[in-house]
UniProtKB/TrEMBL annotation:
UniProt pathway: Metabolic intermediate metabolism; (R)-mevalonate degradation; (S)-3-hydroxy-3-methylglutaryl-CoA from (R)-mevalonate: step 1/1
Name recorded for this polypeptide: 3-hydroxy-3-methylglutaryl coenzyme A reductase
UniProtKB keywords: NAD, Oxidoreductase
Reaction catalysis annotation: (R)-mevalonate + 2 NAD(+) + CoA = (3S)-3-hydroxy-3-methylglutaryl-CoA + 2 NADH + 2 H(+)
GO MF entries: hydroxymethylglutaryl-CoA reductase (NADH) activity; hydroxymethylglutaryl-CoA reductase (NADPH) activity
NCBIfam families membership: HMG_CoA_R_NAD (TIGR00532)
């Protein structure tokens, strides 16, 4: 039996108000007054908004938002808010965008804003026959789905297509139904999940199947955003740099170990804008990585080539299920501001901007890797974090960080020694 205050079985925790929850957690973890007041300060997310976003809220987690400058996308200049805890990410986009700005920047497009909901049907003795019986009812399916969301239909979205396939599984053949739904400016999870749940009993009745899972697919391959860009060879440091970037891409295209890291770099940019705009980072990440494996092996999301003129051409395609309405995007005041700064009017525009950011991020990572290596630039920024962790404040942060970089030793012990020396010198 745990002593009260040390057990995780806290009856009615969710019914407590935030102060009550903080009390309980403070008892459990031995938080002092200062630590409690840290949790009480929810920063620029009002406590009552936070409280309604998720369950059992005790506080908020602030992540810096940096602005990527120099971005020119489809002939329009944009400032890009990026929420990330990782140093170098924002600077990487600024640098990549600066090097292609005079050449016109990024060109983007999108395949559409359609989401897929899946319904799993099992226990069918005649799955092939059942599949056709389902497809024959497309008109009814359309009506049932559209009746779930008249607002979406009024906005030009709604049901688009019915697909069904027989899937061989370790548990035998099953029929998987896909509802293709245009969710317009919504990410669309709620809309398509409601449709799948509404339709499932009908599908079961029409076929005699047992209906099981009813949920969207995060492999949103009907919602693919594309970005391309040409960097003039002279603007990036010459043919050797270009060839280094190409070799880096060839490595990623052929090797999943490298592709995972290559794509992680792309997602550094993508997820930062997805998060800043209150969208679902995990949905986008799951979709991106599944898309990277769509040919049966995990590969690079981007492609790099030399143009006939010898310049460097990059392109990127990835599913980007993001929205402007619904969820945190609507309720989080910072997400609303991020959207205002971006100046996007539709979910498609947002997705296209994000794809351009992903490509810019990839360019900078590959260029750094192909030339000086990633640590030099990274460490310069990381040094500031180390300085802060060592206790530096105000102007001390820059001074200590500079000293660490100059010595090539970005380490906590060195930062502490430098800080002491600095304070002794001042004192
Ligand atoms: C680090 O967050 C991202 C990189 O590893 C990406 C890459 O290797 O392409 C630098």
């Amino acid at each position: 039996m745990n002593h009260p205050g040390t057990t995780s079985r806290i009856a009615g925790f969710h019914k407590l108000d935030r102060t009550g929850r903080i009390d309980a957690v403070a008892r459990f973890a031995g938080l002092d007054v200062q630590e409690r007041s840290h949790l009480e300060n929810t920063g620029n997310l009002p406590a009552d908004v936070a409280d309604h976003m998720i369950e059992n809220v005790i506080g908020t987690m602030n992540i810096p938002i940096g602005i990527a400058t120099n971005m020119r996308i489809d002939g329009r200049d944009r400032l890009i808010p990026m929420a990330t805890e990782e140093s170098s990410v924002v600077a990487a986009v600024c640098n990549a965008a600066r090097q292609c700005y005079d050449n016109g920047g990024f060109t983007t497009s999108m395949s559409g804003t359609e989401m897929i909901a899946q319904v799993q049907l099992t226990d069918l003795p005649d799955p092939h026959h059942a599949r056709l019986r389902i497809l024959e009812r497309e008109a009814e399916v359309r009506d049932l789905c559209n009746a779930c969301d008249p607002v979406l239909v009024r906005l030009g979205g709604g049901f688009r297509e019915l697909q069904a396939r027989v899937l061989d599984t370790p548990g035998g053949a099953m029929v998987i139904v896909h509802l293709i739904v245009d969710t317009r400016d919504a990410m669309g999870a709620n809309a398509v999940n409601t449709m799948a749940e509404t339709l499932a009993p009908h599908l079961a009745q029409w076929t005699g199947a047992t209906s099981r899972l009813r949920i969207l697919s995060n492999l949103a391959d009907r919602r693919v955003a594309r970005a391309r860009c040409v960097w003039k060879v002279d603007a990036i440091g010459g043919p050797e740099v270009r060839d280094g970037i190409l070799a880096a891409y060839h490595f990623a295209a052929a090797d999943p170990y490298r592709a995972a890291t290559h794509n992680k770099g792309i997602m550094n940019g993508v997820s930062a804008v997805v998060l800043a705009t209150g969208n679902d980072t995990r949905a986008v990440e799951a979709g991106a990585h599944a898309y990277a494996a769509r040919h049966g092996h995990y590969g690079s999301l981007s492609m790099w080539e030399a143009t006939p003129e010898g310049d460097l051409a990059g392109s990127l395609e990835l599913p980007l299920a993001v929205g402007l309405v619904g969820g945190a995007t609507r309720v989080h005041p910072t997400a609303q501001l991020a959207l205002k700064i971006l100046g996007v009017g539709t979910a498609e525009e947002l997705a296209r901007v994000i794809a351009a950011v992903g490509l810019a991020q990839n360019f900078s990572a590959l260029k750094a890797l192909a030339t000086t290596g990633i640590q030099k630039g990274h460490m310069a920024l990381h040094a500031r974090n180390i300085a802060i962790m060592a206790g530096a404040t105000g102007e001390e942060v820059e001074a200590v960080a500079r000293a660490l970089v100059a010595q090539g030793r970005v380490r906590m012990d060195v930062a502490e020694a430098e800080l002491q020396a600095l304070r002794r010198g001042r004192g």
